[in-house]
């Protein structure tokens, strides 16, 4: 039988995907390679929800005007990177009230000990004065669990640093299901094989991060000009071995990181990547090639970004469409949560 006919006769339901990204700081190459690129590449096969998590961003102080700008700028980057509004619902978290509501409801079934054990919280808490740190920072993963569970997401594509948070969302879902009956799909974290942990170019012992994207030489930002990208890659920390191959020796993590970036962008195998550099004369050649593949990947994104930022009304319209779809799914789900818990729904039961 013709395959497409067979497919039509028995259509496989698409897996529901939800992921999120914070509008804090400039989107950098790690966000793109660890998350956004995968969202774009697989949007045809999935049922997609992507959330710009402004409520997560305000767990640390933000300048209001800057936050407003960053939120729209991030939306433009996501569309420019290839998320297609006819295939992916892209929306702003605060436009969809069920997110904040779900967070409260889930707070009441999440033990504090689970949150205090989160690596990201412990790292932040170590450097912050507890008298100044917001409660939101501790509660951050519960808001994130709500983002995921409201959509009955099967899959949550994220970089490696978010894996623990997705695992916590699984634990919260299982606990709620045990307490109140089967309510939530238990989601799977989807971590890319390559690109899941892009390291800082200035210090390959720490992960590339939006929070440090302003530090000279730390990150390639998605909307950097080609000249800027070239300069940042040229400045990248390497080592004195002068050997261009993958390695898990921490002393060689700079070169490993550059090769990893080249590998994800070109889609080549480890062997093919090492072959490409078999006759290279040194790290200068490596940096030139890595810079070139990054520039050819990002230049079209930058061009579309500039166009999208030129028409904020259109951008806002696309985000409203995304929010309407998001409310259509998350509204009934939050009502189901309330009903299971024993809250009286306005206007009667479901
Ligand atoms: P955020 O905004 O820090 O990062 C967005 C995505 O980028 C990935 N990422 C990286 N991947 C590889 N290498 C890096 N150096 C790197 N830096 C960041 C992150 O893993 C993430 O996938 N808490 C989330 C946002 C969030 C969310 C959600 C995610 C809120 N609700 C629900 C999934 C589902 C965060 O702060 O991501």
Key phrases:
350 residues, mainly alpha, Rossmann fold, 14 helices, 53% helix, 7% strand, binds tryptophanyl-5'AMP
The CATH C-level name of the largest domain is Alpha Beta
The profile of the biggest β sheet is: 3 strands, parallel
Number of distinct helices? 14
Task: Please state the second-level CATH architecture of the largest domain.
Answer: 3-Layer(aba) Sandwich
First-to-last CA distance:
44 Å
Number of strands: 5
By CATH's scheme, which homologous superfamily of the largest domain applies?
HUPs
Which cofactors or ions or other ligands sit in this model? tryptophanyl-5'AMP
- Radius of gyration over all CA atoms, rounded: 22 Å
- Summed over residues and divided by their number, the pLDDT gives a mean of 94
Q: What is the third-level CATH name, the topology of the largest domain?
A: Rossmann fold
Strand percentage: 5-15%
Number of domains: 2
Q: What would you call the shape?
A: globular
Sheet with most strands: strand arrangement: 1-2-3
Share of residues in helices: 40-55%
Write the element-wise H/E pattern from the N-terminal end onward: HEHEHHEHHHHEHEHHHHH
Structural class: mainly alpha
Low-pLDDT residue intervals, each spanning 5 or more residues? 1-7
């Amino acid at each position: 039988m013709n395959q497409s006919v067979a497919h039509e006769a028995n259509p496989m339901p698409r897996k529901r995907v939800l992921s999120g990204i914070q509008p804090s700081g400039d989107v950098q190459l790690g966000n793109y390679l660890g998350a956004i690129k995968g969202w774009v590449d697989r949007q045809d096969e999935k049922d997609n929800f992507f959330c710009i998590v402004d409520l997560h961003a305000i767990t640390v102080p933000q300048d209001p005007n800057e936050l407003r700008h960053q939120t729209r700028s991030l939306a433009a980057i996501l569309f420019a990177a290839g998320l297609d509004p006819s295939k992916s619902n892209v929306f702003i978290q605060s436009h969809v009230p069920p997110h904040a509501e779900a967070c409260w409801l889930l707070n009441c079934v999440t033990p504090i000990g689970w949150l205090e054990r989160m690596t990201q919280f412990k790292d932040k808490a170590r450097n912050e004065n507890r008298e100044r740190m917001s409660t939101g920072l501790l509660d951050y993963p519960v808001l994130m669990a709500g983002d995921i569970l409201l959509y009955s997401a099967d899959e949550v594509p994220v970089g490696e640093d978010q894996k623990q948070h997705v695992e916590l969302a699984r634990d919260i879902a299982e606990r709620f299901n045990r307490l109140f009956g089967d309510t939530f799909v238990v989601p799977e974290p989807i971590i890319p094989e390559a690109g899941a942990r892009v390291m800082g170019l200035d210090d390959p012992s720490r992960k590339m991060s939006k929070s440090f994207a302003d530090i000279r030489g730390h990150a390639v930002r998605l909307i950097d000009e080609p000249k800027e990208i070239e300069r940042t890659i040229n400045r990248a920390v390497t080592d004195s071995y002068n050997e261009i191959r993958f390695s898990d020796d921490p002393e060689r993590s700079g070169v490993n990181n550059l090769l990893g970036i080249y590998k994800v962008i070109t889609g080549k195998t480890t062997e093919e990547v090492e072959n490409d550099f078999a006759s290279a004369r040194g790290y200068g050649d490596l940096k030139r090639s890595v810079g070139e593949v990054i520039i050819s990947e990002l230049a079209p994104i930058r061009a579309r970004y500039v166009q999208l930022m030129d028409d904020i009304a259109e951008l806002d319209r696309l985000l409203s469409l995304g929010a309407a779809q998001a409310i259509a799914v998350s509204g009934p789900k939050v009502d189901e949560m309330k009903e299971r818990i024993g809250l009286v729904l306005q206007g009667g039961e479901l």
